[in-house]
Amino acid sequence: MPRRIAIIQGHPDAGARHFGHALADEYAKGAEDGGHAVQRLEVAKLDFPLLRTKEEFEHGRPPDSIKLAQEAIVWADHLVILYPLWLGDVPALLKAFFEQVFRPGFAFEYGPEGRFPKKRLTGKSARIVVTMGMPAFVYRWVFFAHSLKNLDKNILRFSGIGPVKHALIGTVEGMTDKQRAGWLDRLRALGEQGQ
Questions:
Q1: Does residue 194 register a pLDDT over 90?
Q2: Which residue of 2, 43, 74, 113 has the fewest CB atoms within a 10 Å radius of its CB?
Q3: How many separate domains does the chain show?
Q4: Average pLDDT score over residue span 34-39
Q5: β-bridge mates for residue 164, sequence order
Q6: Domain of 9: which CATH number?
Q7: What is the average pLDDT value for the chain, to the nearest integer?
C-alpha cells in the first residue's frame, strides 16, 4: 500500500554532500519507484533560532520553516531521519530542530498534574539512519547507542510515533566502494518497501 514518507536529512553541513545525502537520495528513489509519495526536509537549509527558555518552548510561535516541517510530519505516515553521529550524539543543529518541531501542542499535550502527556503523532512509524566513524557494533555495545535511544524513546515514541526501526552504518570513512554500494542498495530497497 502506498505511503506518505517524510525524509529528514539531519546533516548540518549545507555546503557539501556527504554519504548521508546519497543514502537519502537512494531511499527517495526507491520510495518513488515503489509508488510512495515523498517530501524531503534538509535541516541545514532551514532558518530557525535556538530555543532558550521553557516559555519559548511551550508558548512561543514556531518560525515558518518549522511550521512547514510540522506540516510535512503531519502529512507523513512514515518518517526517515538520517544524521551523522557527532560527539556521540545528533548534531546540535538537528537537536535544535527537534526542540523547535516537537513542541507541546504539536507533538504532545500536557495532561493533568501527575498524568502522562497525550501523544499527538500516533499512527506514524519511523526509521533512523545513523552514520558514524566508529564501527557500529562499538556504538551499539560499548556506548549502548545512548543518543539513538534518546531520539527513539524521548522524542519519537514520546510523541506516539512507532514502531521505530534503526540502521547503524559504521566506519563510513573506511568503507570500500562495494560496502558503500551495498548500503545504498539497502536504503533504496527500504524506500521501495516504504520501510
A1: yes
A2: 113
A3: 1
A4: 98
A5: 126
A6: 3.40.50.360
A7: 96
Are 148 and 128 in contact by the 8 Å Cβ rule? The answer is: yes
Taking the mean position of all CA atoms in its chain, how far away is CA 147?
Answer: 12
Average pLDDT over residues 57-79: 97
Per-residue pLDDT, 50? 96
Contact 145, 169 (CB under 8 A): no
Rounded to two decimals, what is the model's pTM? Answer: 0.95
Q: What is the pLDDT of residues 117-158, one digit of tens each?
A: 999 999 999 999 999 999 999 999 998 999 999 999 999 999
Pairing of the two strands 37-42 and 78-84: unpaired
| Alpha-carbon span 65 to 41, nearest angstrom | 10
- Residues constituting the chain: 195
* Dist CA 65 CA 172 (whole Å): 31
**Alpha-carbon distance 126 to 79, whole Å?**
4
CA neighbor of 64 nearest in space, from 79, 82, 83, 49 = 49
Q: Domain range spanning residue 146?
A: 4-193
